[in-house]
Amino acid sequence: MTNLLLQDPFSVLKEYPDKLTHSLENPLHTECVRFSPRGDYLALGCSNGGVVIYDMDTFRPICVLGNKMGAHMRSVQSISWSPDGKYLLTGSRDWSVKLWDLACASQPLKQVHFDSPIWNCQWIEAAQFVCVVTVLEESSAFLIDFALDQPLIRVLHGDENNDDHGYVLTSAVHSKFSDIIFTGTSKGWINVYQLYKEKSKSNVVRMLKGLKVANGNIKHVIVSQQGDKIAVNCSDRSIRQYAFILTSDHSSVELELEHKYQDVINKLQWNSIFFSNKAAEYLVASTHGSSAHELYLWETSSGTLVRVLEGSEEELMDIDWNFYKMFIASNGLESGDVYIWSIIIAPKWSALAPDFEEVEENVDYREKEDEFDQIDELEQQEELNQAEEIDIDLRTREQFDVRGNDLLVSQFTIPTDYERILTLKAAKLSQDY
Amino acid sequence: MFEIKFRIPITVQDGNQFCCSKFAPNGKNIAIGAGSHVLIYSLEDLSLAPVIILTQHSKSISDICWSPDSQCIATASDDFTIGIIHLLYGPLHRLASHTAPVVSLAFNSKGNLLCSSSMDESIKIWDVLNGSLMRTIAAHSESVVSVDIPELDSTILSSGSYDGLIRVFDMASGHCLKTLTYDKDWQSETGVVPISQVKFSQNARYLLVKSLDGIVKIWDCIRGDVVRTFKIEPSQERQLQRSCGMDFLYPSDGSAPVVVSGYEDGKIYCWDSATKKLLQLIDGEPHNGRPVMNIHSHGENMCSLSLDGNCYIWQWTCK
């Protein structure tokens, strides 16, 4: 990300995108959106069961999962990328969860069927192929271990007392400690579980905390990148933000309410929520209802609304935010298109002519003391020679970009589909004739 | 020190000029542009006859670039077009939009964008999937003879032109981010020195630049100053006719990268990038005074190609 070092630092270090820059027309009607970890690709889950991957350099579709066989039959509800960007998990209303290897995306690698539609699926430990799934009208979430030939399904069930928590609607995995899992239920409970290994080597589940935060459905639980904040989106029209305090041995958990976000005027529900990077200084949400077409962005420390992301002409549904590219993507309810907000960095004209300087307004020219001094050539040469004495390192890459993202995380490149290029070319040729 | 590993047995046909030889990223093949077609040799077994790829070009090829997956080659030709050819499936695209010979090509690391530069003074970025032109960058006032994209950081692009400027661009927006030039160069009596080749270091922070007077410099792209200068003896006052090749070579023992540069008189200079010490001077044999048109390294292998079609693979061994 050397480009960031050469751009205007004030623009580069903006903490959130603010301009609608792209919209992706998707005739298949987008239901959910997820960026690949490095923001190279965007996966669109579609209402007909298709999963289309867009390239974020060209903003064009490059890959359709299951184009040979095994695609979902109904609307895709949830997508999760593995951290290396090679494996994709998709959950659908056709009652199945599928695991895809993007090196060979024409059919799913493995799949699991449940007895009702899938709400949400998420990787816990992608390296071990373990994920968590929530299913319609089930009182517990499920763990799936895809590493085995026959994927193993287990119920995520701790030592809950007999309170009726309702159905589990959503789940989240702690961003730093993958052994901590959150679930949200239809009766307003947030449950925190810990997975740990016993001597028998199988994962054991322990419930760390159960907290009733509201009376309505819990629609989303999200965790900040640093893992010390969570936000809960509830159907009672408010988003609650909690400080998440975990003891170092992961034995107990505290949740402290920090803020409650509401639309006081219209009393709207929130469709989806997302935190900004690192310490989660911002929270972004999409509004339910046809009257609002914007994303709202709050500052989490004070709870004040700082920005409204405009530009789409319809109600927005799912949200994803990529911190490498600083893109926010959201899908429209009516058209099914995807809108992308990003940071626009103005061209620096002085970069074209290094001896010019950009100034904000006219400045009266005043000759500097040494401006037209005869420069001693020897002295100048001496300076240049000195510059050649310093050590240079041509090999080592920076570990972090200026925004603090880790650059050394390896990222999978989706192989180019040459057969598709040839097919498109043949189609174009026959059209021309 | 470089030692000749083997000579590539090219049968030279009349009138063919050779100016480009490139290792495939997987190290298994080498592509050599011979006139308007490309010869692909297997490095695993050089006794095999080369695969001859007949392109649709009507004039000779001046640059070849392998796609990062080693499955395709892109060819830049004097007939103003670019070809993208899959080694098994055959031609994928013929890209036409430049209005003068195309001289340099670079793929980004994902292999989805191809960047080209031409004597029409422009740089173009192409979508490899459908062969459409995505962006034209017009920021030079002379032929743009070299473009490079760092292997591990496809966010930037550098270009070198006969107008003497080295520019760094943002791949996503096409904006110029930095121009590397000496004020001093503008003041010299002979005017600016045309740039002949640019090449990023592995970490994308430094840029190796060769100009037509034969001098090789390493620039710090971020700070914008020269951190190393490599000169040949005796200094060539006159401008050279041809842009001869150069490249970095990264020894596997982790020692300082070697700067390898070829010249019109068949000599190849190898310098230590840290100390500027001349490590080796290859003189006379094997290029016998013929211009070394291309230098390309892969791992510890380096290939040198002279205009008359003599191509050698060299192996670097640390002393």
From TrEMBL, chain A:
Keywords on record: Nucleus, Repeat, WD repeat
Alphabetized InterPro entries for the sequence: RBBP5/Swd1, WD40/YVTN_repeat-like_dom_sf, WD40_repeat_CS, WD40_repeat_dom_sf, WD40_rpt
A Pfam family matched in the record: WD40
Gene Ontology cellular component list: Set1C/COMPASS complex
WD repeats: from-to residues: 69-102
Primary location group: nucleus
Protein name according to UniProt: Chromatin binding protein
From TrEMBL, chain B:
An example molecular function term from Gene Ontology annotations: histone binding
Domain of life: Eukaryota
SMART domains in UniProt: WD40
Signal peptide segment: none
UniProt KW keywords: Repeat, WD repeat
Ranges occupied by WD repeats: 54-84, 95-136, 137-179, 195-229
GO cellular component, one term: Set1C/COMPASS complex
Any matching Pfam family: WD40
Protein name (record): WD domain protein
Organism: Zygosaccharomyces mellis
